[in-house]
Amino acid sequence: MSPRDTVRRRIQPGTAPGHAIESVAADVAGAAVHWLRYSSTVFEERTQSGLADALEGVAADTVDWLHFDGVPDATALRWLHERLGLDSLALEDVHNGQQRTKLELYEGHAFMVVSVPLLRNAELSLEQLSLFLGPHWVISFWSGDPALLEPVRQRLRKSVSGRIRKRGADYLFYCLVDVAVDSCFPALEELREQIETLEDQLLEDARDLEVGEIHAIRRKLSSLRRLVLPGLTALQQLLHDEESPLQDTTRRYVRDVLDHQARVGDQVDNLTELSASLHEMHLSAISQRMNDVMRLLTVIATIFIPLTFIAGVYGMNFDPDASPWNMPELRSRFGYPAVLLLFLVVGAGMAWLFRRRDWL
């Protein structure tokens, strides 16, 4: 299932909350999950475990991590609702996708959605990481790049006596949220490089820069800006809510994630200002180029004003035979070359004057 399949579902207006999950018959779910069980002395991993086996194998003396690559069908979600008591409204959010970052606390478990920005071929997409935290288990749903969560799995595989194997499910929950938040930084760094490239291009020649490129970056930053505040709100709720499922030993690490989220917000604001200044620089460069063109045309027109006057005077064609005052120059042997020379002298003189005054 592609990431776009999880974000384009439409909800019929007036549908009862949780209808997509509760209306499905409770049948045997064939969805495969990545099942990982561990403790300080136990480690077991099954990359393609059946959902029924995984749910029956969940035990209180270990931490179980059930991960779905993508969103399973409604039957599998119904099983999670019946076997683990996951709230149907939260499962509906998983099923429909495209939710903003948020935290919901239910009886016996917590549900968190984290919007994860991914840049592929300069195109930004916001993928949804859905997490359920129970007393001794974590369930995750992720439709994006599988490599996102691989560092957490590697820590569990290699850290036999490390902190992650000794802590509870809430610490695993923190690790997954931390990975999701930190994934913002590569996307922001790539956007910064794009802005710097456009800035260099603008300084070299503004004519080679398309204004659509600037607007594309500003749209991406606008999308990132919309996930910052909900992320801060969810993390603060996770830290300070009286019903928060986090243990005191885990809260200090979540505070670090909150700091990272704040840094993401600061960087988004900074890049937004840079993109705005880049847009202003582009407009200024185009305006300056237009001013240069208008100045050149004005100088040319100004030089031709006296030339046009002289040509107009000698173009009146009053007959010199009718009166001695009627343009005696018309009978001059070198009158035409003399007027052309006058044109040249007047034009060159005005050009020299404009050049001396730095108007050219």
Structure description:
There is one protein chain. With 360 residues, the protein is an alpha+beta fold. The chain folds into 2 domains: 3-285, Beta Polymerase, domain 2, CATH 3.30.460.20; 314-356. The chain is 55% helix and 16% strand. The protein contains 11 helices and 7 strands. The chain has helices at 19-22, 51-57, 74-84, 88-96, 150-158, 163-166, 169-182, 184-204, 211-240, 248-313, 335-356; strands spanning 32-38, 43-50, 63-69, 102-106, 109-120, 123-133, 137-142. The protein has a 7-stranded mixed β-sheet with strand order 2-1-3-7-6-5-4. Helix 9 (211-240) runs antiparallel to helix 10. Residues 1-8 have low confidence and may be disordered.
Defining traits:
360 residues; alpha+beta; Beta Polymerase, domain 2; 2 domains; 7 strands; 55% helix; disordered N terminus
Secondary structure topology:
Blueprint: H1 19-22, E1 32-38, E2 43-50, H2 51-57, E3 63-69, H3 74-84, H4 88-96, E4 102-106, E5 109-120, E6 123-133, E7 137-142, H5 150-158, H6 163-166, H7 169-182, H8 184-204, H9 211-240, H10 248-313, H11 335-356
Parallel strand pairs: 3-7
Antiparallel strand pairs: 1-2, 1-3, 4-5, 5-6, 6-7
Q: What is the residue-averaged pLDDT?
A: 83
Number of domains as seen in the coordinates: 2
Poorly predicted segments: 1-8
CATH architecture classification name of the largest domain: 2-Layer Sandwich
Proportion of residues in β-strands: 15-25%
Structural class, by secondary structure, is alpha+beta
Termini separation: 64 Å
> How would you write the strand order of the largest sheet?
2-1-3-7-6-5-4
Series of H and E elements? HEEHEHHEEEEHHHHHHH
Helix content: 40-55%
Radius of gyration over alpha carbons?
36 Å
Number of strand elements: 7
CATH topology (level 3) name of the largest domain: Beta Polymerase, domain 2
- Using the alpha-carbon principal axes, give the shape: rod-shaped
In the CATH hierarchy, what is the superfamily of the largest domain?
A: CorA soluble domain-like
CATH class of the largest domain: Alpha Beta
Main beta sheet: 7 strands, mixed
Count of DSSP-assigned helices? 11
